Amino acid sequence: MHYLSHMAIKAKLKHFLLQLSGKYSHLRKGLRLKHEWYGNDYGGFYLYPNLLNEASLVYSFGIGEDLSFDQAVMARHQCRVYGFDPTPKSIHWVRGQNLPDNFRFFEVGISPKNDLVDFFLPSNPEYVSGSLIEQKNTDSQKVVQVEVKTLETIMTQLGHKHIDVLKMDIEGAEYDVIENILSAQLPITQILIEFHDRCFVDGMLKTKAAVKALKQNGYKVYAVSESFEEVSFIKADVLKAT
């Protein structure tokens, strides 16, 4: 117990020092909200729970072999979660799970277009997550065709006009997708993103540009994980209306 407490203190101190360094100044909180961590250390995100109830809609892109976030949301709020992942290994794993009735899974990826596209599998065969984007963790020789759709198309097909929570862990494809979502002006209250700037030479610039675009469209950062990879945004005007 003492060892775990010591490690937690070290992690928090490292997080604080990195904040002071200015390297992650683009992720400074724009709002102070009481947020909570949903899921395990690997697959979790911070979430503002006060706006969620059993009628809420949650879209979860990038399942891999980890439903801890989705299960935590369903257990607490009894709401519907729609999961999406085109990765062959993930599809096989999800099919083998005993899933609750309020979880629906779709074998498609999110993209700025509706199409069948090349999907790059991970370089390490032990890993699960591939990517629509060729990056340092993928193998350009290991490619499969997968179906992708825009978020607007998915919402239309499912008959949804609003999303309460959009979670994306999509291995570097988030940058193009964010631009597409914002241009479509889709009504989303909370957006939770794992940024994969570590996978690109100019990754930090990509993340800064994405965060800037989200802020310009009314989203504010309210929570950041200790790794600075998982970032939670909320539409500020929704809070004013509650």
Total count of domains: 1
Outline the low-pLDDT stretches.
1-11
Fill in the CATH topology.
Rossmann fold
In CATH, the homologous superfamily goes by the name Vaccinia Virus protein VP39
Query: What's the N-to-C terminus distance?
Result: 41 Å
CATH architecture label: 3-Layer(aba) Sandwich
- Kindly state the number of beta strands: 12
For the sheet with most strands, the description reads: 7 strands, mixed
* Strand portion: 25-35%
Structural class label: alpha/beta
Overall mean confidence score, pLDDT: 89
**Assembly level:** single chain
Overall CATH class: Alpha Beta
Q: Helix fraction?
A: 25-40%
Give the overall shape, derived from the CA principal axes: globular
Which strands sit side by side, in order, in the main sheet?
5-4-3-9-10-12-11
**Strand-and-helix sequence, N→C?**
HEEEHEHEEEEHEHEHEEH
Using only CA atoms, what is the Rg? 18 Å
- Structure annotation, total helices: 7
Describe it for me?
Helices cover 32% and strands 28% of the residues. By secondary structure, the protein is α/β, with parallel strands linked by helices. It has one domain: Rossmann fold (3-Layer(aba) Sandwich). The strands form 3 sheets. The chain has a 7-stranded mixed β-sheet with strand order 5-4-3-9-10-12-11, sandwiched between helices. A 3-stranded mixed β-sheet has the order 6-8-7. The longest helix is centred in the first third of the chain and has 20 residues, at 2-21. It is globular, with a radius of gyration of 18 Å.
